[in-house]
Amino acid sequence: MPLLSSGCHSSDRSLRGVLLVLAIFAGMAIANIYYNQPLLDNLRRAFPHDASLIGGVPTATQLGFAVGMLLFAPLGDRLDRRRLMLWQIGGLCVALLAAASAFTMPMLIIASFAIGLFASTAQQAGPFAAELASPTRRGHAIGIVFSGLLLGILLARTVSGFIAGYFGWRAVFIVAIVFMLALSFLIIRYLPPSQPTSTLSYGKLLGSLWHLIVEFRGLREAALTGASLFAAFSLFWSVLALLLANKPFHLGPQVAGMFGIIGATGAMAAPWAGKFIDRRGARTAISLAIGLVALSFVILGFSTTSIIGLVIGVIVLDVGVQVAQTSNQARVFALKPEARSRLNTVYMISYFLGGAVGSATGIAAWQAYGWVGVCIAGMLFSLIATANHLRALL
Q: How far is CA 317 from the centre of its chain?
């Protein structure tokens, strides 16, 4: 495949090939921070003396991701993104090995933080795609990459549940290392070098993040809306395995993982969402997305004993989050092209901090109020997104 440069747009065929690789990269890299969610019941039984700390595993992973975004993602404006991706994959393999070897819950929580830290490399894919695509096709390109990202988030649970069901939870992290080595080959073989757009020092690069927050109101709006909706998304997925493990379902990690396949149908909305944004604008799409997320928790709230209800709710939730994310990133990348990695850093730090808050809230709501409490919390996050979106329209 010929190398692409930011100075000229590739042929449609070459661009589609590179976007496909970027989508695969985003999905396989981001999957690492979600492998642990179907395993929560397994981990609770593996470390009975530390069972009260179980909520720290998904929370630490997402906090690590947010810190990784802060420390590493801005470098995409300063360095060749391809080389940066490979470096982070190396760190990720070490963190996955530490998780597979953990013999206490605190050790697993520390390893989970490191997994999130280096898995933040997934967020190089979006700015990379925005750099390569023409302005008139940018929404569609971002949609393709985010489709891979969301498929990774959802199918990670399926893969994890299947492997854990047959080979144990430690095998999940070993297999993930194999996946990362294969991903390194794809990057070396098919991705072109990116062109740095900034000569700022690392310190000034980080310092410029605050200036971007102050300068762009649209960035602040997108960050809060995205964080709120992803909090609702993470809240649901962090608790699903616990719901299914209890009566009346009594189902194991394999079934919890199978819900990832169901949710993956929502990922198919990303390319459509990108085209819709290119035609109708991001704000209209975001309004639709918020409504879908809120509706999903109404459906889920009435599905305490219904697998069918849970299936419908999952599809509606994932379509809503997919449309919102594609819309928000299209808005953010258009604000300042030469600072796309830094804009994406601000947005995605907010996004995954929202996810960490959602995961922690989901576990707390489950322990205190059960499934109904979880769904009410999801609705509250949707209301925060609604208020922020409406305020922006005034």
A: 14
Q: Look at residue 42 and tell me if it is in a domain.
A: yes
pLDDT of residue 241: 80
Could you read off the pLDDT of 159-193 as tens digits, one per residue? 898 898 889 999 999 999 999 999 999 999 888 88
- Can you tell me the distance from the alpha carbon of 64 to that of 56, in angstroms, rounded to the nearest whole number? 12
Task: Give domain status of residue 6, yes or no.
Answer: no
Residue 137 lies in a domain: yes
The domain of 196 spans 12-393
What span, in angstroms and rounded, lies between the C-alpha atoms of 299 and 297? 5
**CATH number for the domain harbouring residue 252:** 1.20.1250.20
In terms of Cα–Cα distance, which of 30, 233, 278 is closest to 143? 278
What are the residues whose beta carbons fall under 8 Å from the beta carbon of 304, sequence distance 6 or more? 371, 372
pLDDT class for 5, splitting at 50, 70, 90? very low
Cα end-to-end span (Å), the chain: 48
Q: Are 296 and 320 in contact (CB under 8 A)?
A: yes
CA distance linking residue 80 with residue 3, whole number of Å: 13
Contact assessment for residue 153 and residue 37, using Cβ atoms and an 8 Å cutoff: no
Confidence (pTM): 0.74
Question: C-alpha angle 187/78/339, rounded to 5°?
Answer: 100
Residue 3 forms part of a structural domain:
no
pLDDT tens digits for 301-331?
Answer: 998 888 999 999 999 998 898 888 888 888 8
Beta-sheet strands, E only, within 179-224: none
Check: CB of residue 257 under 8 Å from CB of residue 162: yes
